[in-house]
């Protein structure tokens, strides 16, 4: 990127945030802090009213705005691809708003660029994961993303029925959301649970009858999302399990294993040893049963016992019938 383009990009970045750290600019463009200071000076000399808060960052003077910015074809294509992911990884409320935004973007493009996007859109798709929401039976059309964002921004308590795969039952919960995270092929809300009196990780596709209440909570009484994630990286209630997959089944678990707490892998002569952090042993055991004798449980014994119990239930359900 040449300097003129970088100066324009820095100006757009300053306009997009209330305050911007010099280090963030340096990281974005892979430049030194000294170069950032020179670029800021160049913008000031060009008449851009940039303020600075010592030890914090830069900001644009109140009321100063750039004229509407034209999207490049590359930026428009990137937004279209992001939209394909939005269509499968969010719910109807977010999809509709993203589609509205995409129409506005296309409206300011040149005609040839509009035709380029239309052509590309017909050639790109993201397939819906086939097993989404199969545990609770809830509809995939509403993941409550709009309401959860509302609760996060306004610090409002959320009440909902939450499905537990272990018990197969719903329980009514009041929660104080502190953040949203996407991992393991699902959206999660991290919140303080009023029922359990502790922080919990809730999957949005296991929620039903969700309501955003008018009850407010104070952030000073709660962890931030970053603090929670740092704490979880150091302490966890999950059980470390070690599983050996034979070479014959190993190709089939490559993607699914990330949904079940996969941590690391050690390749062996006849397959691979995989480590998982598992919070729901029976749920994990039922997944392993899919691969039959292609799986060997190294530890813990509790998982091995759970598998044996499930196998015995199958034997009783399908007894041998003499001819």
According to CATH, what is the topology of the largest domain? SH3 type barrels
Query: From the 3D coordinates, which CATH architecture of the largest domain would you assign?
Result: Roll
Give the percentage of residues in beta strands. Answer: 25-35%
Rg over CA atoms: 26 Å
Strand order of the largest sheet: 6-5-4-3-7
Give the integer mean of the pLDDT values. 85
Helix tally equals 10
User: Alpha-carbon distance between the termini?
Assistant: 78 Å
Helical percent range? 25-40%
Which regions contain 5 or more consecutive residues with pLDDT less than 50?
none
Keywords summarizing the entry:
SH3 type barrels; globular; 11 strands; Arc Repressor Mutant, subunit A; 323 residues; four-stranded antiparallel β-sheet; 4 domains; alpha+beta; 10 helices
What does this structure look like?
The chain is α+β, with helices and mostly antiparallel strands and 323 residues long. It has four domains: 3-60, Arc Repressor Mutant, subunit A (Orthogonal Bundle), CATH 1.10.10.10; 73-121; 145-234, SH3 type barrels; 239-317, Alpha-Beta Plaits (2-Layer Sandwich). 39% of the residues lie in helices and 26% in strands. The protein contains ten helices and eleven strands. It has helices spanning 3-16, 22-29, 33-45, 73-89, 92-107, 111-121, 145-154, 225-234, 281-289, 301-317; strands at residues 50-53, 57-60, 156-164, 169-183, 186-193, 198-203, 207-216, 239-246, 262-268, 271-278, 295-299. The strands form three sheets. It has a five-stranded antiparallel sheet, with helices on one face. It has a four-stranded antiparallel sheet with strand order 9-10-8-11. α1 (3-16) crosses α3 (33-45). The longest helix has 17 residues, at 73-89.
